[in-house]
TrEMBL record:
Keyword Ion transport found: no
Involved pathway(s): Cell wall biogenesis; peptidoglycan biosynthesis
Descriptive protein name: Murein L,D-transpeptidase YcbB/YkuD
Biological classification of the source: Bacteria, Pseudomonadati, Pseudomonadota, Alphaproteobacteria, Rhodobacterales
Keywords for the protein's UniProt record, in alphabetical order: Cell shape, Cell wall biogenesis/degradation, Peptidoglycan synthesis, Signal, Transferase
Annotated Gene3D superfamilies: L,D-transpeptidase catalytic domain-like, PGBD-like superfamily/PGBD
Xref: InterPro entries: LD-transpeptidase_YkuD-like (IPR052905), LD_TPept_cat_dom (IPR005490), LD_TPept_scaffold_dom (IPR045380), Peptidoglycan-bd-like (IPR002477), PGBD-like_sf (IPR036365), PGBDSf (IPR036366), Transpep_catalytic_dom (IPR038063)
Alphabetized GO MF terms: carboxypeptidase activity; transferase activity
Superkingdom of the organism of origin: Bacteria
Transmembrane feature ranges: none
SUPFAM superfamilies to which the protein is assigned, alphabetical: L,D-transpeptidase catalytic domain-like, PGBD-like
Biological-process GO terms, alphabetical: cell wall organization; peptidoglycan biosynthetic process; regulation of cell shape
Amino acid sequence: MRRAGLLSVMLLVSAAQSVVAQPPAATGPALGVAAAPRLNFTAREMALAQAAAATPDLAAYYGSNGLQPIFMGPQAAERRTGLLEAVGTAPAHGIPSGRYPSMDLAADATDIAAEIDQARILVRYLRDMTGGMIRPSSVDPLIKREVRRPAIPGLIRDFAQAPDPRRFLLDLQPRHPAYLALQRALSGGQALSVPAGLPRAPEGLWRVGMRGEGVAPLRARLDSIGFAAPSADPLSYDAALSKAVARYQAAVGLPPDGIAGPKTLRHLNGDVSDDSRSRAIIVALERMRWMASEDLDARHVWVNIPEYTARIVENGAEVFRTRVVVGHTDPDRQTPEFSDEIEFVVPNPRWNVPRSIAVKEYLPQLQANRYAVSQLDVVDGNGNVIARDRIDFGRYNASNFPYRIRQKPSDDNALGLVKFMFPNPWNIYLHDTPTKHLFGNAVRAYSHGCIRIADPFDLAYNLLSKQTENPQAMFRRALDTGRESWIRITPAVPVHLVYFTAFPNADGTIQRFEDVYGRDAMLYDAIQKAGLDS
């Protein structure tokens, strides 16, 4: 493998330095004369090529630049110092400091080994900042996110040519306001720690309308960490104090109900470790690096699975929000993470039951009673409805069931009255639902993986608003036909199905959500292991 890599480096150098010479124009067309490929290399160049061959990004870079070093020679001192300072900021990004081996700035400036060691650190830093440390699917196969980072050899070239190498590296980090807010929250991790010496808030339960001596220390502890609620009566648990408690609860990952109960008081009194908050922020920073190539200021739909919320963001600001129901916690029903584009609004959708649901849930019911689930049609491969008395359901099992199951458009259709399509290999989409009562629950993980929308008509109007002056009328005309119809969204709207248990709200305050699928815990472990893999 190393010999093959070395050969490829030499071929790249040869190709890069083979030029076409054009003699002066004469009476006829000029003839290109190919220069002979370069075949001779110095001992230093051979050593550099051999050392770089094991790292594809370095092999490509050195092969394309004639085996010119990055960190050798006194002229490269600024690059070495810039790289050292950049990797020193790793903890501020939630990247373990052990991720990057220590650098010896006093190393011999002609030492090939030092050149390659430093170049490998550079490659690791470039990759980490432009697409994260961890390959998403290695954490959980349901993290389908595709990381699109710039070509690393090109970034190495830009670094080598940069007037200020340090600034070039520092400017690689994501600049989205959410990333910067997460960084600030990580560096200010003690901001939610109440100063020592303040009286404890007494145990109990406080809600609006209550009054007592225990409210005063509760107010004082909240005020000391930025959740002030001024009041003429410091002993009254009034509406302003309830709102301050709710903001604090959201910041520490508790349901923001504004009631100061036992869990809230334990957090406020410092009886609960804040490690979980820091871990959630570290994981969120990595997830943001996965999405570094996405334009998150442009118009898009953002579905945060642990938050049970979907929103439309435009020019960096939220313009629409609705509650959602996401996939159940069972491994085969969880909602995957990925990005796509919503292409269609589909009023009066048919529900083509996924085969996994058809054979696991409906086939056993049909075997017990052929007339069960009467709202569903059994159809053949051509889409023809087959009378149930013509089918011996007992003959079939999950592997040989030859039919499909489908539900006609109706108010009782499992998809409700509209779905939002972004065709993908996992058959995931957003849709209405007749089961509205579930949106009142705090935990909303009930579906088979698709996302149910609490306000689907309003979502449709928003998505169609860029292509018509009256999106309500456009949608209603199609809906009133009672037939399934596909309205193309122009232009298509990016949709991001994401999983953040810590994320800033509009004012930069970090909100916390439960790790409903346990993915954050797995990703945090992977990040810590990446810090040992140096």
